[in-house]
UniProtKB/TrEMBL annotation:
Organism: Apiospora kogelbergensis
Main location: endoplasmic reticulum
Single Gene Ontology BP annotation: response to endoplasmic reticulum stress
Compositionally biased spans, kind Low complexity: 288-304
Domain Thioredoxin, chain residue ranges per copy: 13-146
GO cellular component: endoplasmic reticulum lumen
Record flagged with keyword Transcription regulation: no
Protein name: protein disulfide-isomerase
InterPro entries referenced in this protein's UniProt entry, alphabetically: Thioredox_PDIA6_C, Thioredoxin-like_sf, Thioredoxin_CS, Thioredoxin_domain
Signal peptide start-end: 1-24
Subcellular location: Endoplasmic reticulum lumen
Catalytic activity of the protein: Catalyzes the rearrangement of -S-S- bonds in proteins
PANTHER family: PROTEIN DISULFIDE-ISOMERASE A6
């Protein structure tokens, strides 16, 4: 090859200089996945009071690259609840470290759960479940340490008088189980606030605190200070802030860096920011992982139109009955204008993309605003634009209105938020749902994961559910076989 070709020469040099001394990891700085190495493991994982799932990977490993989207999704789902971390075993300084964990193939996933004794070593177990966000999230949630006391009427006096000068937080709930969010609060405030939960049926306790609606979070700052009733949304950041009145939360990771846990910034309604909150320190100290996998998305090609429903009974059967799961409905004029075309085009693209990836997603339908039943729906929902996209869930009696531009990206992030059960849900007005008329095939109930069961908000309009039951039903699993190390 002639060096007279400057372009090729430059490329060759660039390639040479790019030959890794430090190989670029799969996860970039902005990834919600925490990057851990031999040096930072102790501080970020071993000393953390949080459970951490660790992926041991090599950048060249195809299964590792395939896992990335699901793993990042798991990281987002688990934000604030547990840590999702990755170790690049291809880096020289991590090789021995990965060896110590008995890593023999990539990716290897392990879950490190803090020992219950302070300062003890974490218990590390293999994760061999499905390589999907849901599989990982479920397994990790299952391994979050539980420091939440369940208090009954009988124990109440005892609970209130133990360490009676220290702060206590009580979640009054209809549920008998302890959800991940409450567990995570107990971890944040370990040794700072005693966290407990009391069921609604404990009459004496509920009466003592005058609790009448659920869930209700009460903070007893300790001593003679009066109890405080939380009146915000059941969302982690806001709850941490509320509880912080009684004492500062613990840092997420161990000392070494005096970077005490930055108060997790208020997640505005936008979900893009929460991805970042997690990476914080890790990204800072970690190797710059620069390799982005250039993923050629060819979603747009030949997406078939989403089905239109014009029959009232069909709409009831699919989406508007007390058993129906989530549906996305594009309410458009039957003579599509430009806006309608745009909305329908974006939805078709998304539906197609998911179908191609064999991912299960709720159905999308086009419905026509001039149809009498649709007009009635539009009226009850008080939606006003010529083209509206709404999500309805008959079974859970909520709906959501899409707001934003009609690009597929923007709609997709809204849909993702629904899948994760993030964002604002409104209560379906009475009369929107009808019973299905004579149909022998019962709607197959979707399997929904309930991670954060008891904290589900009762659905006043402005509230956002912290329940994660939407988690994700997709088989993003990659083959379970391992690459060679
Ligand atoms: C706290 O406990 C001590 C000792 O049991 C008791 O004397 C004190 O009255 C208690 N204070 C409150 C506010 O209950
Ligand atoms: C973990 O919990 C202990 C209390 O048991 C607390 O002192 C510590 O700050 C917490 N966080 C870390 C990173 O150790």
């Amino acid at each position: 090859m002639h060096t007279s070709n400057p372009t090729l020469a430059t490329v060759a040099v660039a390639l040479l200089s790019a030959l890794p001394t430090v190989s670029a990891g799969i996860y970039t700085k902005n990834s919600p996945v925490l990057q851990v190495d031999a040096k930072s493991y102790d501080r970020l994982v071993a000393k953390s009071n949080y459970t951490t799932v660790l992926e041991f990977y090599a950048p060249w490993c195809g299964h590792c690259q395939n896992l990335k989207p699901a793993y990042e999704k798991a990281a987002k789902n688990l934000d604030g609840l547990a840590q999702v971390a990755a170790v690049n075993c291809d880096e020289d300084e991590n090789k021995a470290f990965c060896g110590q964990f008995g890593v023999q193939g990539f990716p290897t996933l392990k879950i490190a759960r803090p020992g219950k004794k302070a300062g003890g070593k974490p218990v590390v177990e293999d994760y061999n479940g499905p390589r999907s966000a849901k599989g990982i999230v479920d397994a990790v949630v299952d391994k979050i340490n539980n420091y939440v006391q369940r208090v009954t009427d009988k124990d109440l006096d005892g609970f209130l008088s133990t360490r009676n000068d220290s702060a206590k937080a009580i979640l009054f709930t209809e549920k008998g189980t302890t959800g991940a969010l409450l567990k995570s609060l107990a971890i944040d405030f370990l040794d700072v606030i005693q966290v407990a939960q009391i069921r609604n049926k404990e009459a004496k306790a509920n009466a003592l605190f005058g609790v009448a609606s659920y869930p209700a979070l009460v903070l007893l700052p300790g001593g003679d200070k009066p109890g405080l009733l939380y009146d915000g949304e059941m969302k982690k950041d806001a709850m941490v802030k509320f509880l912080s009145q009684a004492g500062a939360p613990n840092p997420v990771s161990g000392p070494a860096k005096p970077k005490a846990k930055k108060e997790k910034k208020e997640k505005a309604s936008s979900k893009s920011s929460d991805a970042k909150s997690k990476t914080k320190e890790a990204a800072k100290e970690e190797t710059t992982a620069s390799a982005e996998t250039p993923k050629a998305t060819k979603a747009a090609e030949a997406a078939p139109a989403i089905p239109a429903i014009t029959e009232p009974s069909k709409l009831i059967k699919e989406c508007l009955n007390p058993k129906s799961g989530t549906c996305i409905l594009a309410v458009v004029p039957s003579a599509h204008g430009e806006t309608a075309e745009k909305a329908l085009g974006s939805l078709s693209e998304l539906a197609h993309k998911h179908a191609e990836a064999k991912r299960h997603l709720f159905p999308f339908y086009e419905i026509h605003s001039a149809d009498a039943n649709v007009a009635a729906l539009v009226k009850s929902l008080e939606i006003t634009k010529e083209v509206e996209i709404v999500a309805v869930n008959g079974k859970r009696k909520w709906w959501r209105q899409y707001e934003g531009d009609l690009s597929s990206e923007s709609i997709e992030s809204w849909i993702d938020a629904i899948r994760l059960s993030e964002g604002t849900k409104k209560k379906l007005p009475a009369g929107v749902l009808s019973e299905v008329v004579a149909d022998e095939t019962p709607q197959v109930e979707k399997v929904e994961v309930k991670i954060e069961d008891e904290i589900k908000v009762e659905v006043p309009t402005e509230s956002e559910s912290t329940s994660w039951q939407g988690a994700e039903p997709t088989p993003e699993a990659t083959a379970a076989e391992h690459d060679e190390l």
